[in-house]
Every structure is written in C-alpha cells, then in structure tokens.
C-alpha cells in the first residue's frame, strides 16, 4: 500500500511542478488576464450584488483585489506542492530511519529551491520578471503544506490508536 501511495504522491508532485512551470511560462499579459478573470470570478461569489455593479465599479474592485488573489494563488499552489512533496518523501522513507526534522527541512528547502528556479525562469518570459517576495510567499506556502501533511498524519495515527484501544 505504501508503494502505491508513494507512486501517487510522486506523480501528483511532478504534475503540479509541471503545472507551476507552465503557468510561469505565460507572458505578463496572459498572466494578468488570467489573474483578472479569476479575481472577477471570486469577487462575483464573495461580493453581494457584484453582477449588478457597473463595469467601471467591477473593474475598480478587480484592480483592488487582484494583487491579493495572485499572492494567495502563489501561497496555495506551493502549499499543495509542499504537501505533495512531503507526502512523496514520507511515503518513501517510512521504512528508513530518517529524522522527521531532516525530512521537513529537506522538503522545505527543495520546494524553496524550486520556487527560486521558477522565478528565475520568469526572467526569460516576456512581460514577467523574478520576485524575491514571491519566493518568500512560495516558501511559506510550502512550509504550510508540509505542516498540514504532518497534522493529518498525526490525526490519522491518533484515530488508529483510539480504534486499537477500544
């Protein structure tokens, strides 16, 4: 079962890494357009009467919240990446005696390194450029994803332990 979990985690991790790379390959104009569309969709759900607003009022709201939505997207995609990456490492190394702290650190450093290379890649994309702030957001997202994975593992272990005690 662990072997299957490991294969699934590795596949999903690689798929997400490729997705992140492809999203970073969008030109500045393409990326901005996608961000605006996603922001508009989110605001249409969260803001009462958004659809009844004038086009100008909607655009003001979209411009106001677009930056926040983009940064939350960075955080979220790297939270998922950290979760999957740690899952790959965890499901592979459970039979090997590896200190948990070292696994966490290695995973976090790898995710952060990927974020750095992703930002450097954007230097070669029209209308885009690298951002240290984005690397920091990505890095914190990856750490959050790792911590969520650890939390879920502990919850599952506690549930199993309680079932065995009954």
C-alpha-based Rg, rounded: 19 Å
Beta strand %: under 5%
- Which outline best applies? globular
What's the number of helices?
A: 5
Question: What distance lies between the first and last C-alpha atoms, to the nearest angstrom?
Answer: 25 Å
Q: What kind of sheet is the major sheet?
A: none
H/E topology pattern:
HHHHH
Q: Into which percent range does the helicity of residues fall?
A: over 70%
How many domains in all? 1
The total of beta strands comes to 0
- The average pLDDT is 92
Low-confidence stretches: none
Helix/strand/pairing class, anyone? mainly alpha
Describe this structure in words.
This protein has 166 residues and is an all-alpha fold. It has one domain. It has 5 helices and no strands. The radius of gyration is 19 Å and the shape is globular. The model has no long low-confidence stretch (mean pLDDT 92).
């Amino acid at each position: 079962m662990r072997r299957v979990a490991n294969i699934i985690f590795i596949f999903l991790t690689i798929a997400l890494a490729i997705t992140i790379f492809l999203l970073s390959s969008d030109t500045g104009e393409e990326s901005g357009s996608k961000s605006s569309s996603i922001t508009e969709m989110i605001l249409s759900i969260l803001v009462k009467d958004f659809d009844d607003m004038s086009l100008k009022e909607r655009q003001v709201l979209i411009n106001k919240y677009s930056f926040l939505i983009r940064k939350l997207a960075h955080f979220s995609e790297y939270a998922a990446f950290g979760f999957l990456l740690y899952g790959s490492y965890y499901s592979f190394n459970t039979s090997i005696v590896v200190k948990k702290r070292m696994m966490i650190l290695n995973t976090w450093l790898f995710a952060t390194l990927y974020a750095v290379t992703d930002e450097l890649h954007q230097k070669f994309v029209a209308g885009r450029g690298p951002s240290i702030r984005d690397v920091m957001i990505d890095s914190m997202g990856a750490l959050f994803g790792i911590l969520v994975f650890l939390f879920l593992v502990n919850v599952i272990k506690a549930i199993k332990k309680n079932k065995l005690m009954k």
